[in-house]
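Researcher: We're teaching a course module on how sequence relates to structure. For the next exercise, students receive a sequence and then see the predicted structure as tokens, so they can try to spot secondary structure elements on their own. Here is the exercise chain.
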Amino acid sequence: MFRNCSDRRSSMFEAMHFGGFRLWILLAGLLFASATLSEPESAGKNLRIAYVEFPPITYRGENGKAEGSFIEITRKVAREAGFEPEFLYLPVTRAYLYLTNGKIDAWPGVTSIPALDGEVLESWASPLPVQLSAWYLEQTPPVDHFDRLLGKTVIVIGGYTYGGLLSWLESEGSIRVTEAPNHRSALDMLKRGRGDYLLDYRQPVIDTLEMPADSMVRESEIRSRNLAWLFSLANPRAALLRDAFDDAYIRLAEKGEVPPLRKLNQGFVVPGFPEQYR
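Model: And here is the predicted structure for the students to work with:
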């Protein structure tokens, strides 16, 4: 009888001990879950970000890593927003494709690209402007109207779509389009008379010009655009990502760690520029 009572008491203590242990585990789990929920949803998450060869704004450095003024801003903003950027080097057309199918989350690039209409959300924050120019030799007339290109040979950079403008140039029967592999080769082709005009963005060309050897090269502004972050709509969290980047940029701008907030406008467009690519 005493042994049975002792056994029952032992079993009862064991049950209480086990129940207490289970309660401790449950409380610990609740505390962990509460702490996790209190952290930003984006904290510590990788963000797949494409970049293209567009020096000095975005480019792949000699060490194989993403570099450039816009890349550095992107790193700061992504980390401020709670993400770790994972940069993927792509040709421009592949960046468009990956934005469309969701293989990348974002791209620091130019705004208002017809091929990406309905496929991306653009950030409200725009750190930098970008200018498309026509480059020519001093004896050639400036491009004061887009019709200046009619009947001419126009040099373009291989892999660039110019926001869709390339397809218009190639379909315009009176314009001969010839391709250069990079900015330096394009300038050399222009100087050798292998084209009348070079269509290229101002920042990369200014970064490439060598003086006094290139002193005969002149410039006409064609169109100014804005740089921003483009988020893939294939990602269901695209709007949340955009808001996180915009908010992070504002915080960094207030601390002077990124360029001040810019007031966006349509910018300059040379007369005669194709309406559908404005």
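Model: If you want an answer key for the exercise: The first helix runs from residue 2 to 38. The chain has two domains: 45-129+225-264, 130-224.
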